[in-house]
Each structure stands twice: as C-alpha cells, then as structure tokens.
Amino acid sequence: METEVEVGKDKRRNYYDEKLTIVVSEDTAHQISTGVCISYNHVAYFHFSSGLVPSDPWYQVGFVLTTGINSSYVLGYSGSIMVPLGWIGGVTGLLLAAAISLYANILVARLHEVGGQALKAIYVLYSDDGALKLPYCIAIAGFVCALFAFGIPHLSALRVWLGFSTFFSFVYIIIAFVLSLRDGIKAHVRDYSNPVSHGDRIFSTIGAVANLVFAYNTGMLPEIQATVKEPAIKNMEKALWFQFTIGGLPLYAVTFMGYWAYGSSTSTYLLNSVQGPVWVKTLANVASFLQTVIALHIFASPMYEYLDTKFGRVGNPFSLQNVLFRVGVRGGYLTINTLVSALLPFLGDFMSLTGALSTFPLTFVLANHMYLMVKKNKLSPPQKAWHWLNVVGFSCLAVAAAIAAVRLIVFDSKTYHVFADL
C-alpha cells in the first residue's frame, strides 16, 4: 500500500516543492525507512532516512548475519561438533554445511519479489563456593536481555550495536584461540578418539550433524532481507557471501584450535577448558555474555516483529505507550525463555533439537520447495529433480536428527535434576 502526503511548498521559489512518499506495509508494524521526494525544476530527487523504505546497506546486513554465526555458540562447537565427528568428519562437515547453507540461503534471497554459562564461568573464576548457582546467572542474563529488548524497537535500530557485537566477538574468540594455542603447545599427548560408546555413536553423530546446520543459519533471512537497500537480491547475496567467507573465519579458527588443543576432552563451553590469567578469562566471559545479549535480540527479532504487528503497535517506537507494551510483551516472552533455560540446565541438548525441527525444515526443505513452486515453469527437469532430492533428503535427515536429539534429552534428564547448578 503506498500513499503520498504533501508536506510543504517553498513560497519564495515556486519552482521548488517537496513531497513525502511513505511506503506503508500492512504486513508489519516495524519501521524500515521514510523517503522524501524533492522535485526541482521537474526533476525528481530522492532522499531516504530511517523509516519504512529498506535502507540498510549490504555490509550492515552482512554484520548482522556474521553476528549470528559468531555468537557465543562458537565456543561450544569444538565439543559439540568436533569431538563426535573427529578431524575428518568435523572439518569436512563444517565446510560442506557452509556450502549447502550458502546455497539454500541464496535460494531464499532470490525469492524476495539465547546464554547464562558466561556469567557462571566468571563467578567460578573468583569464587567456587556455590552461592551463585547457574539458575541465578540465567535469571540475571534474562533480565539484561529484557532491558536491551525494551530499548531496541526493531532490527534496523541495532546499527551501532553491531560494532560492539563484532568487537565483543573478537575479544572472546581471540582470547579462546590464543589460550588454546598455548595450552596445545604445552600438552604432549592428546586423545582424539570419540568418547561416546559404540552403541551411542550413531546418535551422537546425527546430533552433531544437526549442530552443523545450526551453526550457520539464523532461520530469519527474510526478516533481515526486508531491511536491505535495493536491489535487495543483489545486496543480500553480497551479505551472504561476506557471511560465509570472511565472516566464517573466526568460527573455524576457534573451533579447530579448541579441538586441536584439548582433543576429546574439550568442554562444550571452550572457556572452561582454557588455562590462563584470571583477568583474561574474565574479560573473555564478559565479552561472551554481552555479545550474547545482542545476538539473542537478532534471533528474537522475528518474534518481536510478529507480536508488535499482531497487537498493532504503530507510531513513535519510543512513545510511553509503545515502551510499556515492549516491557510487558517482550518482558513476558523473555521471562518464559529464562525460566525454561534455568529449569533445564542441559539446554545445550536442545540445540540439536532446534536444528532438527526448525533449522533443517526452514533453511533447506522449505527453501528448496518454495523455489520449486515459484520457479517451476522456468526450471529444467534435472533442476526440478535436484530440488526435489533436497526436499526429500533433508526431510529424512531432519526426522533422524530429531530422534537423536530427543534421545539425548531423555538421557540427560536422567542425569541432571531441574534447576541444577552445572
């Protein structure tokens, strides 16, 4: 829906007039940008600012995507991916998953026509008396994430925070990399054998494959693409290539270095394995926590957008009414997430289930099926067969990964009690 609003005419110069063109989407309450069309001597000039017209440059979108894949989850891939798969399977799997994910995300782009472990780790560095338990840390993390969600009304408003996110990412990745390298040089013997028993190895491998998919995909590419400047497809492809080339290097560096240094004993939170000065590890954990707050906001943005649209939140996002709405709705949403995180301390197991039930279907199955439906009259029989093979193959893999994840959750539920302090 497009409306034009006359905003003024310069009475001193009758050859100049200014007209505001606002593109209003009935599908979303979130602003993207406003545009001013200035007519001078019958020649139109356009100026865009934050509002409803997509205005984010491709490199900003690239940093949003890179923030997603280099969140604090990268500190767990040495233990959750490399340990079950080993050097050959892990390295091959990460590279192959990157290529497949890039391909699937580009398909979606061409159709355009949450963590409390870091806080706990900080506390343990200085005092291990058990007074500050993991559930308390998760509650604190949830409160900080809520404060951030209240102040950032929509995805485009992140802007400067993406710079902070990138800085925080480099801090904990570089520290984890350097300390792992130092520990690896000191270690004389490392064991790279799979610690899982032979009977459970198939399930752990399938779970690791689900984690591979989870590592590269946010599942919210259409929402991000809605903010990118025109030409949207070309700029989105630039952002994706940035994400899967330069943006993926930190992920590879810390994942491979962590596994090289500690082998099969690598912790699922790498900073728990490294040895070094307490203040350095504290700095890494603080950076990890702060970056997680920003990354969580990116992951939760589709939910925020849905809630804002459903309940008709329009106008100035910082008006008292809209701020109070965000406090109530987003605060409630994060309260539920925080409670579940504290209730189930082995929430990392749910990463595999998330990859199986959402990332696989949304990123691979749905992307290929949508492409088939939209482009079916333009695809050759071999091309159609290829996309159907992807739909069927990834559907089967999603089912297998879901079974493996549920089995892991059931197993850990017998080992850990609710609100456990890990």
Automatic annotation (TrEMBL):
Q: Record's Gene Ontology CC terms? A: membrane
Residue ranges occupied by any Amino acid transporter transmembrane domain in the UniProt entry: 58-113, 115-406
| GO biological process terms, semicolon-separated | amino acid transport
The alphabetical list of record keywords is: Amino-acid transport, Membrane, Transmembrane, Transmembrane helix, Transport
Q: What is its main location?
A: membrane
Q: Show the stretches that span the lipid bilayer.
A: 58-75, 87-111, 131-153, 160-181, 201-219, 240-262, 282-302, 350-374, 386-410
Location relative to the cell:
Membrane
Q: What is this protein called?
A: Putative proline transporter 2
Q: Which organism is it from?
A: Apostasia shenzhenica
Q: Which lineage do the record's taxonomy fields give for this organism?
A: Eukaryota, Viridiplantae, Streptophyta, Embryophyta, Tracheophyta
